[in-house]
Amino acid sequence: MVHLLPDHALSASARLHGFAGTAAIWLALLLAPHALASAQSASSATSHAYFIDCSASLAGDGSRTHPWNNLEAAQAHPFAPGDRIAFARGTTCHGSFAPQGSGNDGKPIRLTAFGEGPRPKIVADSSDRQALALFNQEYWQIDSLDLSGGSTYGIFISGDKGTLHHIWLKNLSVHNVEGGTMKSKDNGLVVVGASSRNVSFNDVLLDGVVAAHTNQWAGILIGGGNFGMDMPLNQHVTVRNSSVHDVQGDGIVLFRDSDGLIETSTAWETGMQPTETIGTPNAIWTWTCTDCTVRDNEAFLTDSPGVDGGAYDIDWNNTRNTVERNYAHDTQGYCIAVFAAGYVTSESVVRDNLCIANAQSPRLAALQGAVYLHTWNGGVIRGLRMEHNSFLWNPPVATAAAVVDDANTGDAPVIFTGNRIESGAPLFYQTNAQFAPAANAYRFTGGGDARFTVGDKSAATLESLQAVGLEKGSTLEKGWAPEAAEISLRLDATVDFALDSDGLLASASRAQLMVLRSLAAQYNGALSVTVHLREVENPLPQQASALANALLDLDAPEIRFVHHGRTPGVIRLSTMDGRLLKEWTGFQNAAMLGGAVRAQLGAPRYAAMGDQP
After folding, report:
1. What is the predicted pLDDT for the residue at 4?
2. Per the count of CB atoms within 10 A, which of 59, 62, 380, 428 is most buried?
3. In terms of DSSP bridges, do strands 153-158 and 140-143 run parallel, antiparallel, or are they unpaired?
């Protein structure tokens, strides 16, 4: 396949890039084994369980006592709705796996793990296209596996006809896909996309997927297809609690989707291709996406072999997209971009995001700023609002503006209100006349005077803009912000360590743990993170085994785990001698915790992160 992605439509010179409640959780945990047993009993007439143990010396029949000991035997069996296929934990199977069959509504086929220990591994050979594939199949849940190898994909799920339903990928590690020269962006670690114009997906969920280390393009790609602009959109697509790093191109992307969501996920060391050959990347973004939301994510150390190299991007032909409560820091390119090319990007909202130390590349800082609004090929950005965002701007180029806007916005200007910009460079924004700023808070930490450009009002003072009706209610302060003073800190969090109905770590629990995992890795040696786990007292044997596996699968060596937590949902940031600095209750995203720690400790210690899984 060759996807028509935004980069493909333009030359390089023209392309500038383009919880559930506590009671419910505990109830699910207590009832999960019984519900599972009841479901298995009700469907026992048509559903079966099959087992694979590639460490077994003898070939079996797929039963628990005589499991299959190779992928070929399992792949030769056509699976039916409600079937369960389980690999033995702590074992390794070699080759590429393409199981056969489809489930149906209410009875998906589940590919999972059994026993205790590390996730079972499927290791593809370098001559294999992927480690795991589904084609024209639906109603599958794949979870609790470690997949590696292959030349083009880690996981590849596709089809060429109809609507394919219910593809759920949960608690997976997908890594080390090393292939040859990329000829398109349709490759990478996890790819769910069409192989013809007549196919789409409905109900795609990725929860707890870690995708890392590839010389192919994407970390996680949902959608796409180079089959014309009238392809059907994929419906109900969610990526949450996932992490992508060390990829040549994009981190997490939704293409040609509707009702899409990327939340509580992390992307870093994206755009690592040494030389641009097929386009330029970003960390987390959307294209031809309707009613799509990107929220509570973190992106950092983003790079690019050409332009872009930013964190978040509402790209062309998007409708009603929202980017909110995200954290972007230490990027080579922008924090947030909104683009339109050839089509209208309409009714977008960018709010409550935290952007620190963006556009670290001198070239990209001068071109893009921390916020880049840009149109080309007749595109229009219509109905854009940017509200209550915070930008800490200290560019490597003294003339670089924090906000760069040369976009065509039709007959309505960009609404820029309630934002906070703290800048060490004098030019706060450089925009055209279609820009309506009001009620913003500015702080200038450099020498001389703060300046603003709106249309023909070039390098104006705030007072002069207010005199002509712009920047009503805005304020400007001058002076240095307090320097980070602490050398080391401790963070204590109490997290409900609950399981879902599949016996996997509950999404709400995983969301907070993923934020803490990223923070602990970034400040390794300077921030001590302790997680107090609140578990069910006297769990059933199945629960105890599942909880042990969930903690092992999380793979967070930088975090100290203590069992039997104290006050539920409380997070405390303290000095090492116990002086309380901050306290929060309930879920806290990367922007809240990362911003608070950075204010005390300064920039992360990236060199101390080591090789992350």
Report:
1. 32
2. 428
3. unpaired
State the Cα–Cα distance between residues 607 and 524, nearest whole angstrom. Answer: 9
**Tokens encoding 355:** 């952007």
| Candidate from 114-128, 267-281, 472-486 with smallest mean pLDDT | 472-486
Structure tokens at 171: 């608690």
| pLDDT tens digit sequence for 42-73 | 344 478 999 999 999 999 999 999 999 999 99
- State the SS3 of 78-131: EECCCCEEEEECCCEEECCECCEECCECCECEEEEEECCCCCCEEECCCCCCCC
- Beta strand 146-148 with 188-192: parallel, antiparallel or unpaired? unpaired
Does residue 117 carry a pLDDT above 70? yes
Distance separating alpha carbons of residues 446 and 269, to the nearest angstrom: 30
Cα–Cα distance for residue pair 474/439, rounded to 1 Å? 4
Which residues touch 460 (CB under 8 Å, ≥6 apart)? 451, 452, 453, 454
pLDDT of residue 483: 67
Find how far residue 307's CA is from the centre of its chain.
21
Residue that is written with structure tokens 């840009």 in the block: 374
The pTM score is 0.91
- Give the tokens for residue 419: 């934002």
> What tens digit of pLDDT does each residue of 574-594 get?
999 999 999 999 999 999 999
426-439 per-residue burial string, b: 16 or more CB within 10 A, e: under 16: bbbbbbbebbbbbe
pLDDT recorded at residue 481: 67
CB-count burial class (<10 Å; 0-12, 13-18, 19+) for 480:
exposed
Q: Which residue has the tokens 């010389």?
A: 215
Q: Which of 281, 292, 193 is nearest to 245 (CA)?
A: 281
* Cα three-residue angle 53-504-42, rounded to 5 degrees: 80
**d(C-alpha 430, C-alpha 454), whole Å:** 6
If you ran DSSP here, which 8-state letter would residue 505 be given?
A: B
CA distance 142 to 386: 38
Find the Cα–Cα–Cα–Cα dihedral 32, 38, 42, 47, rounded to 10°: 50
The tokens for 512 are: 């907070």
Residue with tokens 């990027």: 331
Query: What's the confidence (pLDDT) of residue 180?
Result: 87
Phi-psi region at 268: left, alpha or beta (left = phi > 0; alpha = psi -120 to 50): beta
Q: What is the pLDDT of residue 564?
A: 74
